[in-house]
Amino acid sequence: MPSSSMTSSAEVSPAQESKAGTGDGDHLAALRAELDRRNLQGFVVPRADEHQGEYVPARAERLAWLTGFTGSAGSAAVLPDKAAVFVDGRYTVQVREQIDLTQFAPRHVTEEPLSDWLKENLTDGQRVGFDPWLHTDSQVLQLRNAVSAAKGELVACETNPLDSAWQDQPEAPLAEIVPHQIDFAGQASFEKRAEIAAKIKQAGCAAAVSTLPDSIAWLLNVRGGDVPCTPLPLSFLILANDGVATWFVDDRKLSDGLREELGNGVDLRAPAELADALEELGRRKSSVMADPASAPKWVFERLEGAGAEIVKASDPCQLPKAQKNTIELQGTRNAHLRDGAALTRFLSWLDREAPAQVAAGNLSELDLVEKLLSFRKGDSLFRDSSFETISASGPNGALCHYRVTPDNDRRLGTGELYLVDSGAQYLDGTTDVTRTVAIGEPSAEMRDRYTRVLKGHIALALARFPKGTNGGQLDSLARYPLWQAGLDYDHGTGHGVGSYLSVHEGPQRIAKAGSNVALLPGMILSNEPGYYKAGGYGIRIENLVAVIEQEQQPGEDRAMLAFETLTLAPIDTTLVEPALLTDGEVAWLDSYHARVRASLIENLEGDDATWLEKVTQPLAR
After folding, report:
1. Containing H/E element for 224?
2. CA distances from 379 to 333, 424, 542, 595 (A)
3. Rounded to whole angstroms, how far apart are CA atoms 502 and 387?
């Protein structure tokens, strides 16, 4: 699945998101009335919660309530007589369909940024409010510079004025929090806490503040369900340099026995007590580690106001969490084995059913979402989808973040491509896989583009690279075959993936604007080059890979790393143009299919087993 942080120029269907927008003029008027009561002339509304996560609970869908826009990224700015919504290139069509254009002006976040809009519309001395819970320290610095340049005053609001205006705002989620057993986690929480505490102490800090739900879930070996598709409990945590964790969480969410499971090294407190704990660190003049890229400005204000010395650094759990241990890696392999069997049953069923069902106009994108989900649900370790399935036929495939809904559901047609990007959350691992298949006879252009995408996928899968290499240095391997034909794609090539956690996990990624974080053994990433023809079709081939160490060969003077492909599912060879492949690429494809066949065949039977045998035979040249 292309990460939401990977900007794409492809525009998204107007009804892309599963949840319809609810914003209207009354909501805007209610917010303005509340701002007037607070002597504020403006307010900035990001699509974010207190944890800066990709998925947010219903209570945090403030941007959708105010504007009607339901995309996964964006913001709004409101002044007394003007308002604007800022989105990236993925959402320029959707935003115009969902917002009231008489109330809000749609703006492209990079071509028409907030700073320019404020300069155009803010008058001297106007006070612009923001919620310090919903903006990071880094974001507030940018916002402050923009407001100052427009000769306004930026004001941190003690409470969110939009929340006061939103009369029927949903309550905070209270999903149960359960232990993530050692059989899946591979390392006890107290061991993780001791290792991270040592890093905090080495940095000269008394404690570190963590606001990232996936970091907290990983550190404490717990999982929850406060947001869609990702098993996260929303909470905050302070880890002292002696390994003692203070966890700020609503105790109504704790499952029976969880307190005992956590042990004496975890002190449970109500979320409302976080302010006192931060201020106590300040009164002690403690050095406290906090991440300016993820922690809300509110945390920095509390620490600074009380006298703490803040050490700005990345969340100390991020890198250790990204490097999966041997148990997590084996769990992920096991999950992919079962997931591959489920996906293969689906692809086998689709191949059998598509000709007649498509000809009769009886097969839609939503039908296929439900069918694929039914195959996955049969697994006892299945807990949820890892994201909303991208089920895209024909021209919808060109929208790389497309979401099908009842309003935009499209029936498959003959001679088209069908792209399905999906994944699952299993107790032992998180999956994410994309396959593109031909419905009927593909065109020569489709075969050419598909084969170039496959060549890029193979090049990255076969990469060997020295330790210290980051994802940005590998990205062009996957693009080169497309570049040779004057083609490209506008999303990243790979994002990190968690272990029964977020399907989009940092800090590692493979992209043009790649992270400077070196790829390390145990990291899991996606390998997903693609090609998108606007109004025509989309192609993406995605497997997950794990970074592994390579034995040093005679004559080599550098320690080398490589990728282990984790995903097991057939690649549609009816779309391959064999003449475009080298002997080495054919060998990789044949070897991969032999592995898929050997790994999955025992978990299939009848027509599905027969189909797998047929589609994984060596490529004919």
Report:
1. none
2. 15, 10, 22, 22
3. 9
Please state, rounded to an integer, the average pLDDT across all residues of the chain: 93
> Helices 444-461 and 583-600 sit at what angle, rounded to 10 degrees?
80
User: Minimal CA–CA distance to 166: which of 239, 92, 59, 90?
Assistant: 59
How large a percentage of the chain has pLDDT more than 90?
87
Nearest residue to 46 via CA among 106, 135, 138, 116? 135
The Cα angle at residue 87 between residues 84 and 88, in degrees rounded to 5: 150
Burial class (CB in 10 A: 0-12, 13-18, 19+), 9: middle
The predicted-structure confidence for 199-229, as pLDDT tens digits, reads as follows: 999 999 999 999 999 999 999 999 999 999 9
- Helices 326-359 and 606-615: angle between axes, nearest 10 degrees: 100
* Strands of 322-403, DSSP E: 382-385, 390-393
Q: Which residues pair with 393 in a beta bridge?
A: 418
Closest of 110, 128, 20, 122 to residue 74, by C-alpha: 110
Task: Reply yes or no on whether the pLDDT at 17 is more than 50.
Answer: no
Beta-bridge partners for 288 = 207, 310
User: How would you write 262-319 as a 3-class SS string?
Assistant: HCCCEEEECHHHHHHHHHHHHHCCCEEEECCCCCEHHHHHHHHHHCCEEEECCCCCHH
Q: Which residue bears the tokens 């570190």? A: 208
pLDDT attached to residue 24: 63
- pLDDT at position 16 is 35
Length of the chain counted residue by residue: 621
402 vs 16: CA distance, rounded Å: 6
Domains of the chain, first to last: 25-165 (3.40.350.10), 178-320 (3.40.350.10), 326-612 (3.90.230.10)
What pTM was computed for the model? 0.93
Taking the chain, what is the end-to-end CA distance rounded to the nearest angstrom?
31
Neighbouring residues of 209: CB distance < 8 A, sequence distance ≥ 6: 236, 237, 238, 278, 288, 289, 290, 295, 299, 303
Mean pLDDT of 337-357: 96
- State pLDDT tens for residues 480-514: 999 999 999 988 999 999 999 999 999 999 999 87
Taking residues 567-576, what's their average pLDDT? 98
- Residue 97 pLDDT > 90: no
Longest dimension (CA), the chain: 75
Instruction: For residues 232 and 50, give the distance between their C-alpha atoms in angstroms, rounded to a whole number.
Output: 14
The three-state (H, E, C) secondary structure of 77-121, written as one string: EECCCCEEEEECHHHHHHHHHHCCCCCCEEEECCCCCHHHHHHHH
Question: Can you tell me whether residue 572 is helix, strand or coil?
Answer: coil
Residue 442, SS3?
A: coil
SS3 state of residue 163: helix
Q: What is the pLDDT of residues 39-96, one digit of tens each?
A: 999 999 999 999 998 889 999 999 999 999 988 889 999 999 999 999 987 788 788 8
The residues, ordered by sequence, that sit 6+ positions from 77 with a Cβ below 8 Å of its Cβ are: 42, 43, 44, 45, 83, 84, 86, 114, 117, 118, 128
